[in-house]
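pls design
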């Protein structure tokens, strides 16, 4: 997505912001917003060109996600999650890609990656059953990426998998009722004895080895960077966007405020408020700069044809979790100094604070686990983890 295309996204933001409260109260992103994002090309940014996508530089994709998230956290989260799945599907067998996009290149794909499904081997594939929670934007999706566990005849666990399942094979249970990101419609998917052919099943070990059968037809460097980076950045980017948007709202709402206590005076003249702004803005900038730096380095390595260094992959995960942590620290500082008026339910600062913290509890943002992996690599110890 070039600058001109990004401008199409920016044009949507006033309407997205205007519908933020409606989105939260409905507990899902409105269909009209999804249509607008679709028309703007957001969901095709990481989709293969051979299936109608634009194969955009991922830096641009996450920039668009941050912008949308600044207007409405729930909408930005759904745009990021649904927008990143075409990248994942591009790694599947070409037959699976044709099934997903052949009838409609604008088909959306949701996910729930936890390996909760039971997989029974049958001729040509697997019979699958299970229930998966937290599938953001699933009400708008025609397909779902679902986690499963491959088990040997003796009961030994072999590997986690990801399966592509069409909407006709699953039921959606409306269970999402959260404190933050309320408008993401992250409902539950239920599958009862659906047949999933082999070409729609991938072992997650392949992703960790930067491999996938889809690379035979999708040959660009975009599809040779790590799944762990692409996915975890899709979780971090909305948080950074929410906090960036909150920062701008904070400045706009506090600039002319006059205190009625603590001696009165203009809030903007308070040196403690000025220090808060300085700290928060630096934390936001640092997080975004590191994220973009790592994406550019990964894309350059993939384009060169050389093996992507594990050190770089670990650095990307390190900066992703710490970037989220810094962003949450920044919004805590803003929220704390914004005063009692920001406690009103539906206030943009209050909603942003809840949304950012809700995104922060996602497993992709587990700081200690990612930092421990980085430390192992720094000490030269072996790394065996699919989320790098």
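designed seq:
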């Amino acid at each position: 997505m070039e600058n001109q295309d990004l401008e199409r996204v920016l044009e949507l933001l006033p309407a997205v912001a205007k519908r933020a409260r409606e989105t939260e109260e409905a507990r899902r992103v409105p269909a009209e917003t999804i249509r607008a994002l679709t028309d703007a090309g957001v969901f095709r940014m990481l989709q293969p060109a051979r299936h109608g996508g634009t194969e955009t530089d991922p830096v641009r994709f996450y920039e668009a996600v941050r912008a949308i998230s600044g207007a409405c956290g729930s909408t930005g989260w759904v745009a990021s999650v649904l927008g990143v799945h075409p990248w994942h599907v591009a790694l599947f067998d070409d037959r699976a890609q044709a099934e997903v996009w052949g009838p409609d290149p604008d088909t959306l794909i949701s996910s729930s990656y936890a390996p909760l499904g039971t997989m029974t081997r049958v001729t040509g594939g697997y019979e699958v059953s299970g229930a998966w929670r937290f599938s953001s934007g699933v009400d708008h999706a025609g397909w779902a990426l679902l986690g499963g566990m491959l088990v040997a005849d003796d009961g030994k666990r072999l590997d986690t998998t990801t399966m592509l399942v069409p909407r006709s094979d699953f039921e959606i249970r409306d269970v999402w009722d959260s404190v933050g990101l309320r408008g993401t419609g992250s409902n539950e998917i239920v599958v009862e004895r659906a047949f999933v052919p082999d070409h729609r099943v991938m072992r997650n070990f392949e992703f960790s080895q930067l491999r996938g059968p889809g690379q035979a037809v999708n040959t660009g460097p975009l599809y040779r960077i790590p799944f762990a980076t692409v996915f975890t950045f899709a979780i971090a980017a909305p948080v950074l966007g929410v906090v960036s948007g909150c920062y701008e709202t904070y400045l706009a709402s506090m600039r002319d405020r006059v205190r009625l206590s603590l001696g009165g005076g203009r809030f903007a003249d308070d040196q403690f408020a000025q220090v808060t702004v300085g700290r928060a803005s630096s934390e936001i900038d640092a997080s975004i700069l590191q994220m973009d730096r790592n994406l550019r380095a990964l894309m350059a390595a993939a384009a060169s044809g050389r093996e992507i260094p594990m050190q770089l992959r670990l650095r990307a995960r390190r900066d992703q979790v710490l970037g989220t942590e810094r962003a949450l620290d920044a919004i805590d500082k803003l929220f704390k100094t914004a005063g009692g008026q920001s406690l009103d339910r539906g206030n943009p600062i209050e909603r942003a604070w809840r949304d950012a913290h809700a995104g922060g509890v996602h497993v992709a943002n587990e700081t200690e686990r990612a930092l421990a992996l980085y430390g192992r690599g720094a000490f030269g110890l072996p790394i065996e983890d699919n989320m790098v």
